[in-house]
Amino acid sequence: MKALKEYLLRFRHFHGNARLFIYVTFASSMAQSAFGLVYNLYVLELGYTREFLGTLESIPVFVTAALAVPLALLCANLSMKRILLTAVALAALAFAGLSVFPSKPMLISFRFLSGVSAALMAITSWPLMARYSTENDRNFVFSFQFAFTMIAGFFGNLISGGMTRLAAVILSGGAESETSYRAALLASAGIMALSILPALRFEDPGSAGNRRGALDPSRLEPKRTFMVFLPQILVGFGAGMVMPYLNIFFKTMFDLRISSLGLLMSLMPLSMSLGGFVGPWLVKKRGLVGAMIILQALSVPFLATMGFSGLILPTVAAAFIRTMLMNASWPIYSVFMLSHFRKEDHPLASALYTAGWSLAWAFGTKLSGTLQMDFGFTMPFMITIVCYCAATLLLSRWFLRGDRRAAAATAMPPEAME
Asked: Among 45, 231, 232, 284, which residue has the fewest nearby CB atoms (within 10 Å)?
């Protein structure tokens, strides 16, 4: 209760643009979760193979990887408000197009558009939150935004599952069908469009790059940038092997109805939100790097249980705990990553990280779709476990000692440091 009061008190003191951005991401995340619950099932219902589904899943991520840096440079002198409004509008358009046009060329085209939207959102979100937070409340801003996003995912999955079930009863005689899935997808497009409303209230914060020439790649030290990015890029590749297919994993493994699947998937982001609130507390105890290592290492046994138990109750319980632990490290990593770059380099660093992570996720997603044709989910889960372990070891080897020294220095009284 005390921790909750602290969060609410801090939220009231966040900068107005930071709060508005949290509202934008709440609505857009609700739409994305509602869309994601049934989209894979919709594509398979259209008669396409899992290999083509893997291609569709990888397209927006490849597009994000390819366009993140060019868009960051191109949009350096545009306001964050304008970039954010464009990102949300393109996402709503892409959702609507994917719902209405089922042909291969149109599905590929609108998935491309959703990748452009994701790239614009990626180059805006972290720099915006960093600009409108202080060193004292940055962990809370990032963690609060992450937790709100996950709570939105809970509601989005519930809405999508209920909408699909209702549409099935009304339009398909109770059977899940292309028509019932399409109804849920269109509803998610409407929710995405609503996220434009809080973005319209933004106080125009000036250009994303602060000034012309602010985005200068030569200022980024290659070795340090590589070391900061690589562990999380490994996580992205491993996550891409499994996470985009969780709805198919649970539905095929345990033959769940869409209403049950919607409830199950809705609880996943709720568990992520709990992780978001745990993060700042753990950072106080163990530091940024120590907190990430603990959370990622603890998640691995639950990932293995989730992939290989074959029993619904242990699988579901492990999925909830793994989701909470692993995703609690995301807002922590955001602050950790930005702390290694100057403020004026945040948009470019964010774009470079987005490009690398998205490329890794896309390769993982594409490879997983192919592997599932021959191995089911066994091989994708094994690869994900290896990637998570490697990322944790790299963080420990490269950054843990420095993190401990920084924490010790912070704990020293001023006179001890003279």
From this structure: 284
DSSP single-letter state for residue 341: S
Amino acid identity, position 360: A
Closest to 246 in 3D by CA, of 37, 29, 17: 37
pTM of this prediction? Answer: 0.70
pLDDT per position as a tens digit, 359-393: 888 788 888 878 887 888 889 999 999 999 999 99
Domain residue spans of the chain:
2-408
The CATH class of 2-408 is: mainly alpha
> d(Cα 74, Cα 72) in Å, to the nearest integer?
6
What the block records as the tokens of 329 is 């490290």
Using CA atoms, how far residue 163 sits from 26, 173, 174, 183, 332, in Å, is 19, 14, 12, 7, 35
Under 8 Å between Cβ of 252 and 394 = no
DSSP H stretches of helix in 172-257: 178-194, 196-200, 222-242, 246-254
261, 37 contact by CB (below 8 A): yes
How far apart (Å, rounded) are the C-alpha atoms in residues 97 and 117? 14
Contact present, 361 and 82 (Cβ < 8 Å): no
Q: Per-residue pLDDT for 286 more than 90?
A: no
